Amino acid sequence: MSICLIYFVTFLFFSVLSFLLSLNFMILDYSLMLEYEMLSINSCSIIMTILLDWMSLLFMSFVLFISSMVIYYSEEYMEGDIYLHRFIMLVSMFVLSMMLLIISPNLISILLGWDGLGLVSYCLVIYYQNIKSYNAGMITALTNRIGDVALLMAIAWMMNFGGFNYIFYIDVYKNSMEMYIIILLIMLAAMTKSAQIPFSSWLPAAMAAPTPVSSLVHSSTLVTAGVYLLIRFNFALTSNLMLILLFIGTMTMFMAGMGANFEFDLKKIIALSTLSQLGLMISILALGEYQLAFFHLLTHALFKALLFMCAGCMIHSLSNCQDIRYMGGLIKVMPLTCTYFMISNLALCGLPFLSGFYSKDLILEVLSMSYLNIYIYVIFFFSTGLTVCYTFRLIYYVLVGNFCFYSLSKINDNSKIMLQGMSGLIFLVIVGGSMLMWLMFPTPYFICLPFTMKIMALIVSFFGAWFGFELSKFTLNDSLKSFYLLNSSLFFSSMWNMPYISTFGLNYYPIKLGSKLYKTIDQGWSEYYGSQNLYSKISNTSVFLQFMFNNNYKIFMLLIMMWVIFMILYI
Amino acid sequence: MANLPTGLISHTRRVQSLYKKALRCLESWYDRREVYRYHAILMRKRFDENKDIRDLRIAKDLIAQGEEEVFQSNHWHPRKFPESPGGVAYERVVTPPDWMVDHWHPLEKAQYPTYFAKREELKKQFIEEWTKKYGKPSPIAH
């Protein structure tokens, strides 16, 4: 029995178990808090606390389910890899860290899970050992490090309350200064993990990892850890912080949507789409609807994991080629993969009755109902249009059109294990949204909107689809808009120059300072007082001594003569 | 050091590499094959128009202009073959070389006694065969 199969069965079993438990807890409206005393010395006890409620159990069951499918899928995707065992171990360590994060009502055990996620994600990004992966891993680890530090500072600040179980203090102290600082730090941590705007550049870079990892870690689970943390802390968010969060979330959503329209790497397009959906989750959370954010988090995890798995299947058949300009017409050669790809893409767009529709449409309608300015409204709907736009661009490039790969290729739909792994998810991608809707919202949301506002989502989606198709196809005599507007294309394709901010932008001044210090201290004063000057003094002295030594015989003879003269004169 | 020119590059070679760069650039911009072919032919025409220029001053000037044009119109995401330098899968899988095993710690080696005994034997055999075929290696001078 292969290692993949063992982990698949284990994770699937626990997934079903926690799903059934979550249903039970949901019906009974029941939360369970377990306290386990690990150590007690001199009346100082260390207690591990575990919180089990429907939210944590449901999230856990989804994470376990997706990871079981991804591990099953990896058996064929990573076939022949000499480090397969290490890979599977890393993935299962990732799942364990995620579990620790989900069930902790305690900031210290959250930090353990959080740091575990960061570390394992770094190890998975550098799994392939080329320079690109190393660079991507470095930017991933360092960006996440900022969040870890923020979380550590929040833990230190929790000392004001005398304990680390935030869940006891969040309601009581929510208007205090201490809680304000804690939530600020938590917000910073969540922004790094969920790749919100100043910290966005690591997510597309992390696509250097193998595709099953992208499917599990960088689309459905790890990046939603930040959103999950904010959902847990959402009662402590003040209105000002919520507005800041709303602004950041909407900007991320817009930036990622624009970026995806200019990207040509299949995995990076999907990563940017993940970023856009994360922005959506953060923004709806900032509007106070944490349940909707959680709902979208779960449905998004499903269809995005499947989308990545399909992309992985295509990349695998196209012998590691990820550029969508090499693809085209794949529907003829890999029909089942393309069907799955299409379904998850349409779920992402929010096609009625697929899983994305229930969460996304509800979010848009709740947003339309709320009392907000025109900027938020426009940017939300524009970003929804952009999602449909890049999805249709992707469909145009990958599924239809001419076949653009080498004529001698082995593209086919014979990857049985990978297809089985994907088939496990497809059912939930189709019915997951409606199922969760019935489970999570027993009382329906009351939506009352004028007709034009109600169909606005449909209109932007329609225009998005049309633009996506029109912009990507061109004929012989069309002039290239992206070439004639090269500067703006460069701006949008580089995520608003964000990778430069987090690389050269950060490095510039420290490196400049370093060069100045090197010139003035290392090569300047310390040379003057230390090595060079000392060297020249010693060498001058030794030259003098050498000169003296060369005259040694002369001096000796002279001394003898002087002695003889002395003797003659005085004897 | 790597960027230093290691030899004289003839004019013909500069033209040829410019032409190749221009075609690669066009390939990145125009992703449908027939459209690319159309633009590649137009590019060929631009090169052919100047092929009979005998005055090297003008020809050099043209090349400088062409290189500048290629640089300015570079694609932000140029097409790269996955296994070529700059591609996504370039040097992705590193297979450790066989001699790595010789550097194992003796304790590690002791865990696989039969393998290492056979390995030493095979090494001796290989050296013997090599000396039989090529003769003894000359002693190193330095």
From TrEMBL, chain A:
Bilayer-spanning residue ranges: 5-27, 47-71, 83-102, 108-128, 149-168, 180-203, 215-235, 241-262, 269-288, 294-318, 330-354, 374-396, 417-438, 444-469, 490-509, 553-570
UniProt record, GO biological process: ATP synthesis coupled electron transport; electron transport coupled proton transport
NADH-Ubiquinone oxidoreductase (complex I) chain 5 N-terminal domain span: 39-87
Keywords from the named record: Electron transport, Membrane, Mitochondrion, Mitochondrion inner membrane, NAD, Respiratory chain, Translocase, Transmembrane, Transmembrane helix, Transport, Ubiquinone
InterPro entries listed in its UniProt record: NADH_DH_su5_C, ND/Mrp_TM, NU5C-like, Proton_antipo_N
Keyword Kinase: no
Catalytic activity reported: a ubiquinone + NADH + 5 H(+)(in) = a ubiquinol + NAD(+) + 4 H(+)(out)
Location of this chain's protein in the cell: Mitochondrion inner membrane
Membrane topology: Multi-pass membrane protein
Protein's UniProt keywords contain Membrane: yes
Superkingdom classification of source: Eukaryota
An example Gene Ontology CC term for this record: mitochondrial inner membrane
Protein family per UniProt: Belongs to the complex I subunit 5 family.
Role noted for this protein: Core subunit of the mitochondrial membrane respiratory chain NADH dehydrogenase (Complex I) which catalyzes electron transfer from NADH through the respiratory chain, using ubiquinone as an electron acceptor. Essential for the catalytic activity and assembly of complex I. Core subunit of the mitochondrial membrane respiratory chain NADH dehydrogenase (Complex I) that is believed to belong to the minimal assembly required for catalysis. Complex I functions in the transfer of electrons from NADH to the respiratory chain. The immediate electron acceptor for the enzyme is believed to be ubiquinone.
Protein name: NADH-ubiquinone oxidoreductase chain 5
Source species: Popillia japonica (Japanese beetle)
TrEMBL record, chain B:
Keywords: Acetylation, Electron transport, Membrane, Mitochondrion, Mitochondrion inner membrane, Phosphoprotein, Respiratory chain, Transport
Presence of the UniProt keyword Electron transport in the record: yes
Chain segments annotated as coiled-coil in the UniProt record: none
Start and end residues of each Complex 1 LYR protein domain: 13-69
CDD domains: Complex1_LYR_NDUFB9_LYRM3 (cd20263)
InterPro entries, per the entry: Complex1_LYR_dom, Complex1_LYR_NDUFB9_LYRM3, NDUFB9
Membrane topology classification: Peripheral membrane protein
A matching Pfam family: Complex1_LYR
Cellular component terms (Gene Ontology): mitochondrial inner membrane
Transcription regulation as UniProt keyword: no
Transmembrane segments: none
GO biological process, alphabetically ordered: mitochondrial electron transport, NADH to ubiquinone
Localization, UniProt: Mitochondrion inner membrane
Major site of localization recorded for this protein: mitochondrion
Role played: Accessory subunit of the mitochondrial membrane respiratory chain NADH dehydrogenase (Complex I), that is believed to be not involved in catalysis. Complex I functions in the transfer of electrons from NADH to the respiratory chain. The immediate electron acceptor for the enzyme is believed to be ubiquinone.
Sequence similarity: Belongs to the complex I LYR family.
Subunit structure: Mammalian complex I is composed of 45 different subunits.
Protein name, UniProt field: NADH dehydrogenase [ubiquinone] 1 beta subcomplex subunit 9
